[in-house]
Design brief:
Order of helices and strands: EHEHEHEHHHEHEHEEEEHEH
CATH superfamily of the largest domain: NAD(P)-binding Rossmann-like Domain
Largest sheet: 6 strands, parallel
Number of strands: 11
Shape: globular
Number of helices: 10
CATH architecture of the largest domain: 3-Layer(aba) Sandwich
CATH topology of the largest domain: Rossmann fold
Length: 294
């Protein structure tokens, strides 16, 4: 059994990006600039955005963090998005989700300039991804593909089962795994809350990608020996530790790992890859804008 180490791989990617940024600045250009907008005081979102800012510093990016109060209106947020669209010094930006309930998420995401949409959530970028055209692919699915690629996991001709149909992970990774690419070229089944007999599907799977957010959902008796398991789930489960919780994935790791050829741990698997791939998307946005220099 081989662990797909997202922490190590993400650090490798950050080092590669840092080398590129060094070359960019040594040639007289400004470094890439990534911005993030966060509305409200959601603890998990603040932690995540803080990690992105630290990652920017590590690779030599400029970064801007825009914190807006919870009572920010949809129109005020749209105005902020438009300012970022027009700001030539910013190559890419994200609007951290979730947004407060009084703001329509799709309205905001639709307003983001697709050329600066380094989260890959805009329909223009999602459509290009589906057609295997150059674009920004959302960071978590992109991180999964990168892990499979760097560990040389065979996907061609394999049966892949994706658990979960979210717009951020489930749908895009199901498309990516079926594209005529490497990794890719697999036969994909997308299972969800209305799918009956999920166990029958997972028992036939060569690759299982779980993005349900249900702790320890995938059990040892639901898969065959030699399967590849990618666990995207991240759930806080209360315990007696100092933090008062532990991070648990969708997979019963201790027992499932015994049957796997490859598996991602939680934490330390897909999670770290998300930030690394966001940084990679922002480098692409910078290069797109300064194409004459590359």
């Amino acid at each position: 059994m081989i662990i797909l180490d997202g922490k190590k791989t993400s650090n490798d990617i950050k080092s590669e990006i840092a080398e590129e940024v060094k070359k960019i600045t040594e040639s007289g250009n400004r470094p890439p600039h990534l911005a993030a907008v966060i509305v409200g005081n959601d603890g998990a979102s603040l932690t995540y955005v803080g990690s992105k800012v630290k990652a920017c510093e590590k690779v030599g990016y400029e970064s801007t963090l825009i914190k807006l109060p919870d009572e920010t209106t949809e129109d005020e947020l749209l105005n902020q998005v438009e300012e970022l669209n027009k700001n030539d010094s910013i190559d890419g930006y994200i609007v951290q989700l979730p947004l407060p309930s009084h703001i329509d998420t799709q309205t905001i995401l639709m307003a983001v300039d697709p050329d600066k949409d380094v989260d890959g959530f805009h329909p223009t970028n999602f459509g290009k991804m589906s057609l295997n055209l150059p674009t920004f692919i959302s960071a978590t699915p992109s991180g999964i593909i990168e892990l499979l690629k760097r560990y040389k996991v065979q996907t061609e001709g394999k049966n892949t089962v994706v658990l979960g149909r979210s717009d951020i992970v489930g749908k895009p990774i199901s498309i990516l795994m079926g594209l005529k690419t490497n990794p890719g070229n697999s036969t994909v089944t997308l299972a969800h809350s209305r799918t009956s007999n999920i166990k029958n599907l997972t028992l036939e799977a060569d690759i299982i990608i779980s993005a349900l957010g249900i702790p320890n959902f995938l059990k040892e008796d639901m898969l065959k020996k030699g399967v590849v398991v990618v666990d995207v789930g991240i759930t806080r489960v209360p315990d007696n530790s100092e933090k008062g919780y532990k991070i648990v994935g969708d997979v019963d790791y201790e027992n499932v790992s015994k049957k796997c050829s490859y598996i991602t741990p939680v934490p330390g698997g897909v999670g770290p890859m998300t930030i690394a791939m966001l940084l990679k998307n922002n480098l692409k946005a910078f290069k797109n804008k300064h194409s004459s220099c590359f």
